[in-house]
Amino acid sequence: MSQLLTIARRELGALFYSPVGYIVLTLYLLFVGLLFSLMVMRPGRIADPGPMFLWNHLILIFLVPFMTMAIFSEEYRSGRIETLRTSPVSEAAIVLGKFLGAMGFYVGVIGSSVVFVILLSFFGRPDYMPVLTSYLGLLLMGGLMVSIGLFFSACTQHQVLAAMSSCVVLVTLGILFQFIPAFLSPFIRHSSSWLLSVKHAMSYLAIEPHMAGFSRGIIDSQNIVFFLSGTLLFLFLTYVVLETRKWR
Amino acid sequence: MAEQFDIIAENLTKSYGKFTAVDNISFAVPRGSVVGFLGPNGAGKTTTIRMLTCFMPPTSGTGRVAGHDVFRESMAVRQKIGYLPENTPLYLEMRVAEYLKYRGMLRGMPRGELAKRIGHVAEMCWLADRLRWPIGKLSKGYRQRLGIADALLHNPPVLVLDEPTVGLDPSQIRETRKLIANLAGRHTVLLSTHILSEVELICQRVVIIGRGKILAQGTPEELKSGSRTGDKARLLVDVRGPADQVKSALGALTGVENVTVLHDGPVCSMQLTGRLDGTLREQVAATVLQRGWALREMRSGGMSLEEFFVQIIDPGAAPAA
After folding, report:
1. Do both B31 and B171 map to the same domain?
2. Are B250 and B158 contained in the same domain?
3. What CATH number does the domain containing B298 carry?
4. Whether residues B237 and B219 fall in one domain
5. What is the dihedral of CA B45, B47, B51, B52, to 10 degrees?
6. Which of A7, A88, A247 lies closest to B75 in CB terms?
7. Which residues have a Cβ under 8 Å from the Cβ of A127 and sit 6 or more positions away?
8. What does the DSSP 8-state code read for residue B274?
9. Which helix (H) or strand (E) element contains residue A245?
10. Residue B105 belongs to what domain range?
11. What is the least distance, in Å, from the CA of A70 to any CA of chain B?
């Protein structure tokens, strides 16, 4: 357990040492600031930061891959994977430690948006419960995104390839699956069409519907299960990739 | 028997598809000794080491380190081994002391002991004045020392060093060798290298590997003398005189099987091979003087470890004169 935390701390440190961490943080604040000024901080609107959180995933699907791309790829490329894997640490501790470290940074990034909530509190009296549930939702969503990034980083020693692969998957989940089902509707002529199942599957896998509840202050176990099971699936896949790599 | 050896490789094999990188290798490293693992680049040294350090499992065969099986008791082996991989991979953004602390905690060392050991290994590896430096700013020599310090940090009984002197300048090489030689007795060291003088200087035993197979093993002296008796001995003679006449005169002596002219000129060089024991050298000298030529030089052409090495890793190449 202490070794797991040692790995997590190093991973977190690496993100704070690298320029990538600060670029991610800057872009995030820029985007959330834009959402805040365009959708929340408007004259005559009620003090509801909800929209600001609802659209967070649109920037995070592009930022998280850059946070996670180096986590394993850079270890493979530099050969440090050898010192890591020959230390008395289990593969599971390596995967969880690195996940925890990246999550630590992710929490720092989404936590920075709290300044906008504070700003809003000067001008109105927002309901703080939806803010808390929004952060819970962002945390759960982050777990899924980071574990996807971790998985692709474990697959290759090329950081750029890892970042692009996780970007593609996250864009698919975060944007494509949200809008494609609407385009499918005209082609679905009867209720037994296979396209209907595809549409349902896509709608279920899309990120936005699962975030919507949290941003309105609703904690729905269905959404928690969606994010948690996705996170566990990709953490397990990362573990499998790491385990199988040594047999090659 | 088993406890006298800290590293035992038994029929270790690693195949990648049809390519066999390491082919049925067996050797043992006695406790407390420094053993050189010698071979040209691509011979399978690193692959063998990676199997012994639990980085990759062998295709077949077994390895035991400090009494534990590398596959079934991998965690126990990793506790007892200090490993410096090829090219010394480090976290460049960390500081030296910070890195050592990270590595110690990764190995589960208690804080108090860790602080003491960091001071100790920094002293041992001449790193004490660089503890606060970012690793990225260190020279290659210092990085290498840091790698060795990391391998020594938990005071492991077994050390595996993969080409620890590559990329160092001559004085750093000397220092590193001194450091490794000092480790003998307290640690069992397997040192992989492709530099021969290194092995002659600091290793008690040598295992020579080429194309995935063990070609020879023993003490450096055994290998050198073994090469002399197993092969025809040679005598090199430089004479001032006509080459063809010298050749026929020396060829007529008893025990000489073959004479080769290495260099023709006012002073010619001959290489004599055969059973060159007894009074042959006296006979050669007497013959040369009788004919009125001048004897410039005569030396035994016994093989150096280097020639032996070149010969066994590449039997096709003619031995250099």
Report:
1. yes
2. no
3. 3.30.70.1340
4. no
5. 20
6. A88
7. A48, A217
8. E
9. helix A221-245
10. 2-226
11. 12
Judgement on whether residues B113 and B214 belong to the same structural domain of the protein: yes
Quote the number of domains for chain B: 2
Contact residues, B window 101-120, toward A, CB-based 8 Å cutoff: 102-103, 105-108
Mean pLDDT, to the nearest integer, of A186-196?
A: 80
Tell whether B278 and B130 lie within a shared domain: no
Are residues B124 and B155 both part of a single domain? yes
Region A182-211: mean pLDDT is: 85
Q: Which of B56, B85, B108 sits opposite A79 (nearest CB)?
A: B85
**Contacts of residue A89 in chain B, CB cutoff 8 Å?**
106
Q: In a 3-state reduction of DSSP, which class is residue B295?
A: strand
**B13 and B58 Cβ atoms separated by less than 8 Å:** yes
Of B54, B87, B102, the CB nearest to A6: B102
B256 & B288 share domain: yes
Residue of chain A minimizing CA distance to B151: A83
The residues of A whose Cβ lies within 8 A of any Cβ of B are: 2-3, 6-7, 10, 13-14, 17-18, 78-90, 246-248
Cβ contact B75–A90 (<8 Å): yes
User: According to the model, what pLDDT value does residue A186 have?
Assistant: 82
Q: Do B55 and A85 touch (CB under 8 A)?
A: yes
What is the chain B residue with the closest CA to A81?
B89
CA nearest neighbour of B7 among B78, B54, B73, B64:
B64
- Domain regions of chain A by residue span: 2-245
* Pairwise CA distance, residues B152 & B154, whole Å: 6
The whole-number pLDDT of residue B165 equals: 85
Of A79, A83, A88, the CB nearest to B79: A88
What is the tens place of the pLDDT at every residue in A18-66? 899 999 999 999 999 999 998 888 888 888 888 888 888 899 999 999 9
What three-state secondary structure class fits B86?
Answer: coil
Whether residues B222 and B296 fall in one domain: no
Report the gap between the CA of B2 and the closest CA in chain A (Å): 23
